[in-house]
Amino acid sequence: MTVQSRDGSIHTIADWHLLAQAEGEKNFMKETRLTPEDLAERWKVPTTTLSQWRWNGKGPQFIRLGKHIVYRLQDVELFEEQKLRRDTTRTGYELSPKEETRTERRG
Asked: Which residues 6+ apart lie within 8 Å of 35 measured at CB?
């Protein structure tokens, strides 16, 4: 059985399936990878900031493909989670052992 695409070309069902699969993988890559421009827009920072972070090892992990840079969405989300703060003096939601001891004494 054959199928005619929008551009008028004729494909077998197997070819059509392969084309759809390739298109789905391409869309999946777009959804799970961010360019520096995408990440800069997400975080409202200049791309030069991301470049400096890559140079200094301060930002999220990235992949260099030749001269192209991409960030995996899972690495970006992990980096964001690691930057969560309860207030300006502590990181994350856990109290340090020293703070737990002080809290127990007050209680």
From this structure: 69, 70, 71
